[in-house]
Write a structure and sequence with these properties.
Length: 418
């Protein structure tokens, strides 16, 4: 039976394990637990092929535990009973049991409940792997009994180490005398979505080569790799990237904003959703510093409906670069202060002069009497009472167009806005 290269190159110990330096290494959480042979139940949360499965097997070996691997999607009640029984037999001879549940986000809540007592008593060391945010998909009772450790995509340097180790240490590749040109290696590392994908492409290239000619070129790689996989395809990735996108715009970083926009486009994000968030940013983050931003972003959104992809990318880029580069003001959030005050019961009488006076008997009640019509005065302004009790909510910013608004208001109201 042919064993895939990615499987053959799975790390056997921490010395062969690449990436996740925040968890694996001197005085890091997982290394310390394995060294002291006191391993807690945990969830390994991260993108595909970030090293979750390899980490579990290394941990189980280091603590001399039996590792039982299952998939949450196919795990049934009979298997759970057998696992618990096996763990009890192991415990009777002082042997630990590591239960590795892949795709644990697919484990139903009743099945999650089944393992609570075994985890709490230490009968089973449960290690789950998931690409989904555990705080979204696992119930609180399970989360409270386990550690949640996040893994990250491997940087290019680590991918290159894995690639070099495969070529120099895998017995089959060594036997074939496989070599790879530097430009080919850079191309493979650049376009592979993860270590498993990278090694799969490498093996595919080797199998496609003529016998006796196992020098791999850049053309060999590009013939196999057509397009880099989408960066994210799950709910948590969706929210993380859009959050980073908006915060980059808010932080006036156009390059970071374009990077996250490209991630969303390449991962198939709905452009209408992106434009909705851009419209919110136009009013919340740019606001009165450049009021026209809302109209421009809306025009881009309308034009996208007529143009579509791929030229529509330019409209998304136009709106993104505009918002990232413009001066910022979030003074529109002042409405939240006003709403909070009203909901706290701060309700004041409306001054009679500005109450409705267009109905019979209004004048008798004193409505509208002494109202001063601002347009009858210089600069269309006259100071008068608009609330019976003074209120203060608006905080104008010294940014862009709003700076002029602030200067005008301070002139009219005699420096009411510091």
């Amino acid at each position: 039976m042919h064993i895939p290269l990615a499987k053959r190159c799975a790390p056997k110990d921490f010395s062969q394990y690449e990436g996740q330096k925040h968890l694996v290494g001197p005085n890091k959480a997982i290394s310390m637990m394995a060294e002291k042979k006191v391993v807690q139940s945990m969830i390994l949360y991260g993108p595909p092929a970030s090293g979750k499965t390899g980490l579990v097997r290394i941990i189980a070996d280091l603590i001399d535990a039996e590792c039982i691997s299952v998939n949450a999607l196919t795990l049934n009640s009979d298997e759970i009973k057998q696992i618990t029984l096996k763990a009890q037999i192991n415990a009777n001879v002082s042997k630990k049991t590591v239960l590795f549940i892949d795709e644990i986000h697919r484990l139903t809540r009743p099945k999650q409940d089944v393992f609570l007592n075994s985890i709490e008593s230490g009968l089973i060391i449960l290690i789950g792997a998931t690409t989904e945010n555990p705080y979204f998909v696992l119930q609180p009772a399970l989360r409270s009994r386990i550690l949640i450790l996040e893994l990250f995509p491997l940087p290019k340097e680590d991918l290159k180490k894995i690639l070099n180790r495969a070529i120099t240490e895998d017995s089959l590749l060594k036997e074939l005398k496989v070599s790879i040109e530097e430009e080919a290696a850079e191309s493979l590392v650049q376009f592979a979505s993860d270590p498993r994908n990278m090694l799969t492409v490498l093996e595919t290239v080797v199998l496609s080569k003529s016998i006796g000619d196992y020098n791999i070129t850049k053309d060999d790689i590009t013939n196999i790799i057509q397009k880099k996989d989408a960066v994210y395809d799950n709910e948590s990735g969706h929210y993380d990237v859009i959050s980073a996108f908006i915060k980059s715009i808010r932080g006036s970083d156009p390059d970071a904003s374009l990077y996250y926009l490209a991630l969303m486009i390449d991962s198939g994000e709905d452009p209408r959703f992106i434009f909705r968030r851009l419209l919110i940013s136009a009013v919340e983050d740019v606001g009165l510093a450049y009021p026209e931003a809302i109209s421009i972003v809306q025009s881009c959104a309308d034009a996208f409906e007529r143009i579509g992809f791929p030229e529509g990318n330019l409209l998304l880029s136009h709106a993104t670069l505009l918002l990232a580069g413009l001066p910022k003001s979030n003074s529109v959030l002042s409405i939240n202060n006003a709403i909070t005050s009203v909901r706290a019961g701060n309700i004041y009488a409306i001054p009679p002069a500005i109450r409705d006076s267009h109905y019979s008997g209004a004048k008798t009640l004193g409505r509208g009497i002494d109202y001063k019509y601002p347009h009858d005065f210089p600069e269309n302004f006259v100071e008068q009472e608009y609330t019976s009790t003074p209120v203060s909510f608006y905080n104008p910013q010294d940014s862009g167009f709003e700076k002029k608004l602030k200067e005008r208001l301070n002139k009219l109201w005699k420096k009411r806005y510091p």
